[in-house]
What does this fold into?
Amino acid sequence: MKVYQVFHDQVDRNGYRPFIHIPREAAQKYAPAAIDFTYAQAQIVVEKLRQQFDAAGYGPGDRVAIALDNRADFFLLFLALNALDISVVPLNSEQHSHELGHVIGHSDASLIVSLPEHRDKLAKAVQTIEAAVPIVDYERTLAALPLTETSVMPLDDAALVYTSGSTGQPKGCLLSEDYFVHVGDWYRDLGGYCALEPECERLLTPLPTFHVNALVFSFMAMLSTGGCIVQLDRFHPSSWWGTVRNAKATVIHYLGVMPAMLLARPPESTDDFSGQIKFGFGAGVEPEHHAAFESRFGFPLTEGWAMTETGAAACIMANTDPRHVGTRCIGRVPAAIEYSILDAQGKKTRIDEPGELLVRASGPDRRRAFFSGYYKDEQATTEAWQGGWFHTGDVVRESADGYLFFVERKKNIIRRSGENIAISEIEATLLQHKAVDVCAVAPVRDSIRGEEVFACIVLCPDVMPSLDAALEIFNFCKGRLAYYKTPGYFAFIKEIPTTTTQKIKRGDMKVLSAELVTSDKTLDFRHLKRRENSKDRKTTSLGVTEDI
It folds into this structure.
């Protein structure tokens, strides 16, 4: 079944019910009031868009890159394109032009649909690639789509989503119609603490539409149950609870950074949301914050595990008792998933012994509803599915009663505020600076963001360690990487720990970075890590900007 068909069925059944709500606070930069669509109202816009793209010759075989941020227009355009069997490539507009250029060029996008404020950056991105990809303004010129010839090579994917891998450039994950629909069915039937009541729920999320949580999980959960998606522009701690209350949210999606920031705010008499919110759905809450959050705000944070590559085909949730609150428990593995936990030698681990999690679907089709592969990277796809199992790169342990607990990532990835950051990409950027001789990057713990980027640098012989040198390297990185990828900490050292074959000892780097981060040898630039146009954002007493 197509995503559009799921939507069309809900239009027939629940045309008058709310489908999308953009609160006033999230829409204030471009609209005078909150934005609301019922299913029937959305269908009118979707049909108009479908006709426009159809008339211009777009159809099966085309991919359209979308830079519409977290607006309702993103979902409406996605549905219209899906009706024509056109795959979408969600863009992260906060990335630099060369980062966007990689995604646009690698995805073979036929067209870019953009908000006006992103057009110049996207034009620069297109200049970095060989293909001439037209850019149209969603608000002004969408009716004048450039004509194209319908492709004779239909695509199997409904979306191509790029996720940072451990080897540098982001990989494109091919997501099929079955992937999307399976997520909706899975969430609808999940039950326990995460039970959804048909045609009643209002699911609020601040997460970006270029990630599968908002693009697939929250969107398909509401689409499959006739509920309403409440989409925020991003997470604003200072106005969060007022927005939640006014939007009448019954479910929220979160990242681990959010509970930490909300707990840091002064207690109020209206903190108890036990009568409104059924549950929070997310991952990564710090153990010391889990019980404190639930006690103060009155609803459970149900922790889980999944990846872009797995979707709901191998999603594990702690949605039934005992949830083992405050232990990084991700629940029991359901019968629909087969799993194995292997140590470094490839042998099955014992009880409570950490090892890499391997997963696959139960039944004859081991890859059913997983991603369809990495686009243009058959080797990486084969490696990920080595031995008939999907190798997650995540380390877990299993207790005697069959519950899994997240331990760490095996891959060279830093997880900061929900973003996967490839260590190799940061190191490659640092090495482009003329003052950097050798470098190594590692994650360090951050009580708010989960992890932060720590860079250890050996300077060239003619460069002296100084604050000015560090600031120059920081700005160099900031000019080439999305703000969240730029190292928050710098330390100048004499030698990087390496093996006899000159490979970086990643384990030693983690230990060294953890020691250095509290020393006077480390320079802290976290306060300078801000997204574009964020100069007017406040800084909390914890030294972090209020919005993520």
